[in-house]
Batch of 2 targets.
Target 1
Amino acid sequence: MFSYCADPDTLGTFRWFSCYLTNGVHMSFYMSFVKVLVLLAVTAPVALAFGFAGAMAARSHFPPLGWLGKGYIAIVRGVPDIAFFLFFVIALDQAFEWTRHQMFCPDWTDPIRQGNDFLVCPQAKLPLGTAPEWVHETYGFFLAVITFSIVFGAFAANVLFGGMRAVPHAQLETAEAYGMSRRQTFWRILVPQMWVYALPGLSNLWMVLIKATPLLFLLGIEDIVYWARELGGTKTSRFTDYPHGDWRMWYFLFLLIFYLAMTRVSEIGLERLMRKLSHGQATAAGELLRKETTQ
Amino acid sequence: MSCLQTIQDYGLRSIGIGERLLPKGDYTLCEHFTLIGSGMIWNIYFGVMALATGFFLATALALGKASANPLLRKPSEWFIFVFRGSPLFIQFFFAYFFFLSLKKTYPMFDAFTAAWLGALIVLFLNTAAYSGEIFYGALRSIPKGDLEAADAYGMSGWSRFRRIVWPTMLRLAWPAYTNEAIFLFHATTLVFFSAFPAWQQRGDALYYASYFADKTFNPFIPYPILAFYFILLTLAIVGVFGLVNKRLNRHLPAARRARMRFRLNLAR
């Protein structure tokens, strides 16, 4: 990075660290923080959409759809989320490959599950065996995003379902009295009002989502945990210009501080958002705001 | 090999009793159930021990955070913030490498790098922080009248705390605390997936489930079995905590008695 980095052995402590922290592998380490932020940015809206669909299904008066929605919400509660992460990554991958196998190789006669193997024809492999490295990485990340969205979608569905139920019933009855259809009542009356009730739950969910991002490591992504383990491990001068002892503890301390900062910033942001949304609402928080301004 | 034989061989495999080698080749359904169930011993061990010890620290933290003295309040607030604001997964990693470097200078820290103690300490601190926040919330919503009544009876200090504040706090916090307990048990599955090594392949339920999934490349059998065990465990927790809840609320008239309602306050 800097011109004096050519021979690190001769440098003083400060310069040594300035070179060490800007070398190639550390740049990959910093890029992995971007990965985490991208994951958050993509997963949050997708999970919200999954959640909305789940909550709508759970409210449905058509029994199979209602059971589906309720089942989707309930199953996540009883089982550790990490089990879902590990399950979906393999299950989704196999589901995609199986579908492609049915499409591309209809005359393939061998069974797909042979003993302890899962074999599809070469054209159905995902990504293709010939694909470059970045396609493999992107595909892995894509699977991770879907997995996160499914799991957090179930959490969001539970929150939104609660929010929908919290809207005063009189509002819905009034809509009915005005002759609105069920669909109109849902979209025009229920949906606009439910957000205030759902927001505390959703902000809690956002915090949980932030804290779940290190689980990317378990899905085989080269994320911050992976790099912290790699970079922190003992390095001898045979393999690197920057030999050092076991620094993994310090790398993880840095990650700990990074996450604390993330949650603190989100806390402050969400508090502001709640304050804004409570403005003019007939809730205790809204009443407090009114008193503050009138006094 | 009959299923009974499998249970004899692998039922206590996770704590090192029975067959040393894990089964090979074609895995039967019985082997799945037995090994994953044997792994549940670790989940229950971590959960029960962390809850039992964390409860006391949580009470202390809640009292500290509610205290008027900044020397007590500030450390409690920081403790709760640090453990609730960072992922448990990272806490496990940090603690493991921290104990590892301690071990290098002081060999007496040897046991701390093993999961049974090191991970337990992390879980203990973590659950204490989460429950401490729950108890603190409950402490602040103790009805004013109860405290005034205690004053009127001339109670103060320890007897007021022991007879009025503490039972009421527990009663108010209990539904949320039940949730915390459920999620603590779920969090125990992270132990062997963070840095803590599973010595001689003695792991928890998820460790064995992912072992099977890796070997057979078929996630559709081991993970549903794991889910089955955890749903049973969750039901058991709800049952036990429901009994305690009943006892905590026994003085209230039946109509005002808080029915246990479980709201999802999500994992850590």
Note: Residues 207 and 263 of chain A are 6 Å apart (CA to CA).
Target 2
Amino acid sequence: MADNSAQNRAEHWRKTRNLTFVIMALWVLFGIIIPYNADALNSMSILGFPMGYWFCVQGSLIAFVLMIWFQNWRQDAIDDEHGVND
Amino acid sequence: MALLERMGASPETIGIGFLLFTIGIYALIGWLSRTAEVDAYYVAGREVPAVYNGMATAADWMSGASFVALAGGVYFGGYPYLGFIVGWTGGYVLVNSLLAPYLRKFGCYTVPDFIGTRYGGNLARLCAVVVLVVASFTYVTAQINATGTIAARTLHIPFEVGVYLGLLGIFICSMLGGMRGVTWTQVAQYIVLIIAYLLPLIWMSNKLGYGIIPHFSYGEGVQRIAELEAQYGLAPAAENIGGVRVLTTPANAPAGAGWGMVTLAIAMMTGTASLPHILMRYFTTPSVRAARKSVAWSLFFILMLYLSAPALATLTKVNLLDPNLATSVIGKTVEEVTNIEWVKRWSEVGMLAVADQSGDGIIQLNEFFMRPDIVVLATPEIAGLPYVISGLVAAGGLAAAMSTADGLLLAIANALSHDLYYSIIDPKADTRKRLIVARVLLIFIGLAAAFIASLKLTGILGAVAWAFCFANSGLFFPLVLGVWWKRANAAGAVAGMVVGFGVGTWYLWSVFAGGMEPWMGIDHLRFGIIGMPASLIAMVVVSLLTPAPSQEIQDMVDEVRIPSGNTILGSGH
């Protein structure tokens, strides 16, 4: 069902872009906001670690991998839906 | 090897055995992958499965800096240095979201290939080549430096000889097979380096009672260190000793350091997404979908090491500091400490020093000096593991440095042969000639890099941070906007590269050599934070002041945004 119409492509790109924006927002959260506020988070504890430290050495890293898996899963679905998978 | 140790082989023999055995394997793979085809040489025939490409990227990515220097940086630098950990992993989110699938669809051989075709014109291509060469060359000298250091220490040869010996190994991997050879040697190198990193860590963890997998349980160690730091006090040394330093930064005290940490992380993340030797790994997958999948695998394999580096730094610190452990040095008498075997060995080469500067006969925390780069290499000895493990760690460090040097040298040589020679100077050259030029360039660049490395101008971690900043200052926005902003045109891209790279380099020079006070604490390690905004502004302003790109180019961008259909650039272009 390769629908090559301009409308189909525009719709596909709109969804791709929105998904990317969501991922970028999460990236800002885990890559910048949480590490920046590590001091405040350190007053809490997680798995025996001070929480701010834990996010910088484990939590954010694991979040990055999960974000990429999630994005690829959704992007594959979007590509399939619009018949533009390769 | 363990068997050899029991049979009474000397530690030196075991170390040499490890090194030669692994290099022999890489050379064999390089020989088996030899090729005379353009597609195979530049992009491994675009048939590397996602999982293996993930492993190869992880080895390509994790350099001497990650393997040798990162844990030491965290050990001495504390919270601000965690910016390297967050930055060198979070960058893959940018690679996956903004670039890798689109560049794969484009079908380019090199990063300047994308810039040159997307924006049109040789000037844009040339600017991209210049940025690529400067960034990658800075990076590769650090790797060859690391290769030389390890070879010199293990084989007991002069550093300068070690450098050229390391280079020889790198050539064997990359010369004959190009990208195909490098891909499969990198897969082997990943396996060697990850075993070499995890085995001593897990061993040490079990000795200390943190369980089989220390990653979930070393939180206690973090808290124990905080107690010990408070007990000993973190005072600067009474008298500094050149090349080595005492611990002064607390392991976990982020108050007021957030800005420094986050700027470092941002510079490293955007640098990840602009470094050509990483981006070009995603040109080798069979499809766009596989390119995305392999980014996920890359980060997964990278995390194996990055989750471990802070654990290693923590456990090594506990080993050295905790007076309840037999391995500790702090609080013992001078005589006891100077008689420890590994203290002797590393002191001899000037990478460690103990000096009872207070004259009380006891080694205090600020009287134990160490070079940060040796934390990983010395850990097996500090923790009292058998010497065979040290040989393994040396082989792992060599694998990490060699694999990255391979990828970088190939990125430089390919950009010069494909983008400068073939696309600009002699577009009629036939396949044979193109591949000969590529290989000759590889040798010359390698020799030049080895020569610079033998001069020992920079430390490992510093040179690597510079490479990231050169790359993101010059290339990040021209690459990203090339996909995400149709209105971006050639004039804008050239302005973005020239201004970003120029401003970044000027800032680096002013802060590092010119004695300028850094703006808002942005030092020479993160000068990309200054270069990137300059690049963005120049690119947007100039693009808007000049005519929009042609309909043809705008259609090309539309085509790049969907995975299906043919690549923009055909095979063998």
Note: Residues 12 and 82 of chain A are 6 Å apart (CA to CA).
